From TrEMBL:
The chain crosses the membrane at residues 31-54, 66-86. It comes from the Bacteria. Its main location: membrane. It is found in: Cell membrane. It comes from Cnuella takakiae. This is Phospholipase_D-nuclease N-terminal.
Length: 104
């Protein structure tokens, strides 16, 4: 499984777990706390993987890396969605282009 697929699966599983856990908590059903803890773990895994890609990129500067870090930590859902839809392509394609240029 490549990183893009893994990030997408982690993000979607996190969203499903948050919604399910919140529903269970609101309706006072069992295991709501456990589901929310699982969603926190999924969120943490996503942030760690995304930040490793951001910090491994050679194209984006330190300011952009800092912005991605703050966004992914404090505004996880919105920043994760933006990262998956647009930001990751900018970070990864740019670093691949740099690697291909160095190989030539």
């Amino acid at each position: 499984m490549n990183k893009r697929t893994l990030l997408a699966v982690l993000f979607l599983a996190n969203i499903v777990a948050v919604v399910t856990g919140a529903y269970f908590k609101i309706t006072h059903q069992g295991y709501g706390d456990s589901i929310l803890i699982v969603s926190f773990g999924l969120s943490l895994a996503f942030v760690v993987l995304a930040l490793t890609e951001v910090f491994a990129s050679r194209r984006i500067d330190t300011t952009q890396k800092l912005m991605w870090t703050v966004g992914l930590i404090f505004f996880h859902t919105i920043a994760a969605l933006v990262y998956l839809l647009a930001g990751r392509r900018h970070v990864i394609d740019a670093s691949k282009g740099l690697i291909e240029y160095q190989e030539l």
